[in-house]
Structure formats: C-alpha cells, structure tokens
C-alpha cells in the first residue's frame, strides 16, 4: 500500500492507495478540491463538513446523470461499473472525512 499526501480545501490528508495509483489519487483530490471551491465560492461557505458533503452530493448527482445517459458520455472502452465503483469508493472516503471533521 502506498501513502499519498493530498490537499482538499487547504487541509492536508494522508491517504492509502494501491501501489501505482498515487497519481490518480492526486488527480481525483485536485478535481474534488476544484469542484468544492467552485460550488462553495472558494471554500468559505459554511462548515467544512457541510462543504464536503455538498460537494459529494453534487458529484454523486453528476455521476447518476452520466450513468442514466443524461450527462457526458463515458469514454468507449471504459467499464462503467468499474468507474461507478471507483467513484462510490471516493464518495465513501469523502463522507468518512466529513464525519471526522464534524467530530473535531
């Protein structure tokens, strides 16, 4: 297992991932960070847990649109179930981080 340091909303997190997936995890974190800032006006609206949850819900909504054929089509050759599983895993991790932040 590899360890990766990522930054979301100005906070550093150490995450575990499979060896060789470090770059992908950094890309995903950068995407989530960008969407969070876009959705919350720079990451300054409400508690951090609320901002993370709102971002997670928007990403889940976008994913459901894609899966239902209403959004950006998935690239041919990409296994949609694998993509959905990966996004579900990331969403669960975001929810875990949000829950820890609420308890802090």
UniProtKB/TrEMBL annotation:
This is Cell division protein ZapA. InterPro entries: Cell_div_ZapA-like (IPR007838), Cell_div_ZapA-like_sf (IPR036192), Cell_div_ZapA_N (IPR042233). Transmembrane segments: none annotated. Its main location: cytoplasm. The keyword Transmembrane does not apply. It comes from Azospirillum doebereinerae. SUPFAM superfamilies: Cell division protein ZapA-like. The keyword Cell division applies. Activator of cell division through the inhibition of FtsZ GTPase activity, therefore promoting FtsZ assembly into bundles of protofilaments necessary for the formation of the division Z ring. It is recruited early at mid-cell but it is not essential for cell division. It holds the Pfam family ZapA. GO terms for cellular component: cell division site; cell septum; cytosol. Gene3D superfamilies: Cell division protein ZapA protomer, N-terminal domain.
């Amino acid at each position: 297992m590899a360890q990766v340091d990522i930054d979301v909303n100005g906070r550093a997190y150490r995450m575990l991932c499979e060896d060789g997936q470090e770059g992908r995890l950094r890309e995903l974190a950068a995407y989530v960070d960008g969407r969070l800032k876009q959705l919350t006006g720079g990451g300054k609206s409400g508690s951090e847990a609320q901002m993370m949850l709102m971002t997670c819900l928007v990403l889940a909504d976008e994913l459901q649109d894609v899966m239902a054929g209403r959004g950006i089509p998935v690239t041919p050759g990409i296994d949609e179930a694998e993509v959905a599983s990966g996004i579900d895993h990331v969403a669960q991790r975001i929810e875990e981080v949000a829950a820890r932040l609420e308890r802090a």
